[in-house]
Amino acid sequence: MTARPANPPLWDALRADAAELGAVKGSTARGWAAAADVLTLPGFWAVLLWRVGNALHERGLRPLSRLTYVANLVLFGADLPAGAVVGAGLVLPHPVGVALASDVVIGARCRIMRGVGVGGSGHAGRVGHPVIGDDVWLLDRSAVFGPVRIGDRAVIGASAVVGQDIEAGMLVLVSRASTELRIRPRTDLAPDLAPDLDASELVVPDLDASEPAS
Fold first, then answer.
1. Whole domain around residue 150: which residue ranges?
2. What is residue 71's predicted lDDT score, i.e. its pLDDT?
3. pLDDT, mean of residues 121-145
4. Does 181 lie in the same domain as 130?
5. Global pTM?
6. Is 114 a domain residue?
């Protein structure tokens, strides 16, 4: 069994986090102006609280680590329990709605966008949490579940749900067919409230695939 990696030194990790967040933001400021530009972003403080919580957790100070978890939930709406291993240079540009399990392992320089979920599969036969490589992007509302490995430089596209290993350098996108809206009458309504439709199911085509209006 591969040994679980350790978190990087706290201050080194925070410096890398700030530098990577500034790069993602495209900041051109230098010196104190650059520091102020990053330190006023909620994403930096959400990562800072998570890192402090992980450090306290590793030292056995579990009640204090729980306080940082609660602070993240209250201040930024980010569900980041202590216990994870997080490589240097993590970027959470928009932390609201991000939920990452306490046992995940995340590599260096990862970008995690809004609404991302990473955690267990919920199945007794698939116990464990994801291991995410270096330079991985998890785009908006994507999810990674179970004891899977996401290779270095992979990109998990918006709304993609991944429950299998992904090799390095791969791009994972939701199938175009899944962008169709499938609409059908509700079956739990009283007869007098149910819609009077002959079709059992209506399909709204993907608007991007339709011809432009003349």
1. 10-175
2. 97
3. 92
4. no
5. 0.80
6. yes
